[in-house]
Amino acid sequence: MDVIDSKKVDQNFKFQIAKEEGGEGILKCFACGSCTARCPEMDVKPEWNPRVIIRMALLGLKDEVLSSEFFWICSAHFRCLEKCPQQVNVKEVMNAVRNARMFEEQAEDVTGKKAKKTLDLDFKYKLIKDESGKDLYECFSCGTCTAGCPERELDPLYSPRKVIKNALLGMKENVFSNKFVEICSMHHRCFTQCPQGVEIPKLMNAIKNIAIKEGYSGKTG
Length: 221
Known about the structure:
Blueprint: H1 13-19, H2 34-38, H3 50-59, H4 62-66, H5 70-73, H6 79-83, H7 90-111, H8 123-129, H9 144-147, H10 160-169, H11 172-177, H12 180-183, H13 189-193, H14 200-213
Helix pairs in contact: 1-7
């Protein structure tokens, strides 16, 4: 177990998260692990552990939390909420952590400490204007598409949900460079299982169309 350097601890970090809409639940968590036991993301990657992320946030390990991938891919299945004795909505807490991360990036960009990856907040609007991308707003990130995706047999990190969430956040560079966009096939297993009827292959085609228009041809592979 690594030793925690008290000089790198931010005791106010948990309160920063709690001030965000939906983040107040973090102060009710006593790290019982019920969320982790029910989390489907851990089947993909053991490091995606909600209890560990929340525990680190409560301890003030801000850098470790904000460098995690978990808060980007945490979905809206609410299995954790169903079992949590404190009724902590992990999804909402992770959204609050995401907002804290984006705030930090903006602050770093202003001070010049780090180069901020540019967010294209109009990217989602470009997608829905494409005939193939009109379903984008129907997605609420439940993760059904990722759970049933046969492409994950090639690589367990392939995730249509992650691509869609990145698109909604305006993380255009991440979307264009994601290999899943290129290899997504027309099996329609995701479409038949999606509660919203989102056609993932069409969305991926819309992304490829925009990538080509903006000169990113060949960078999605």
